[in-house]
Amino acid sequence: MDMVMSAAPVAESLAERSYRVLRDRLIMLDIAPGAPINEGLLSAELDMGRTPIREALKKLETDRLVHSFPRRGTFATMVDIKDLAAISEIRHLLEPLAAEKAALNPNPALRAELADTAAAIEQLDESQDRRALMEYDLEVHRLIYRAAENQYLEETLVRLDNLATRIWCLVMDRLPSITGHIQEHASLLRAIIAGDPGKSRLLAEEHVRHFEATIRSIL
Question: For residue 16, what are the CA distances in angstroms to 10, 55, 60, 120?
Fold first, then answer.
């Protein structure tokens, strides 16, 4: 299964490519919180001019992943654990809605993609690299949001999940295991595939609640 972090949209523009690369580096903390974003270095590395990079940075600022300061430049935003409560409050409301809507979507291609993802997750074990596990987590959430077929819901949840994942990455080394948390998605995906909106909503609620409780348990 292609990982979400490496999968690129077909015929994406330079700005879209720049956005995707920077977004994923910021989410996974490859670009450290508070670190400056050097447009010149990125331009050389990605083999593109500065214009698409600046377009990407504008979008990333809307996503709350970078912040620009006049005459100082652009920096990766800090990761504040105190944001967990506010992020979780909205996710508690919207994640179950997305799961419910995804379960009501009869699209066979999406159902097949959900089934492939569920099967891959069920095969995960403790030997899996933690970064790869986090990429699975991102992939599952983005797939469910897409299956809900509501552009505004999808965009909102992707942004919230990106911010939640940054918090997750910040404390990941302090967690004894994250495999179980990732594997929770399998039963959720199976409920969506079965077209069970009630069970899908319930499992999504439990997953978000477990995520928040896990983070708080080590603070």
Answer: 11, 9, 11, 28
Kindly state whether residues 173 and 111 are assigned to the same domain: yes
The pTM assigned to this predicted structure is 0.89
pLDDT in tens, 148-194: 999 999 999 999 999 999 999 999 888 878 888 888 899 999 999 99
Q: Assign residue 118 the CATH number of its domain.
A: 1.20.120.530
Measure the CA–CA gap between 23 and 60, rounded to whole angstroms: 7
- For the beta carbon of residue 109, count every other beta carbon within 10 angstroms: 7
Question: Residue 57 is part of a domain; what is its CATH number?
Answer: 1.10.10.10
From residue 168, alpha-carbon distances to 6, 175, 207 in Å are 20, 10, 14
Sign of CA dihedral 17, 27, 101, 133: positive
**Rounded distance between C-alpha atoms, residue 111 and residue 113, angstroms:** 5
- Considering just the CA atoms, what is the radius of gyration of the chain in Å? 18
Tell me how far CA of residue 42 lies from CA of 22, 37, 76, in angstroms.
9, 8, 14
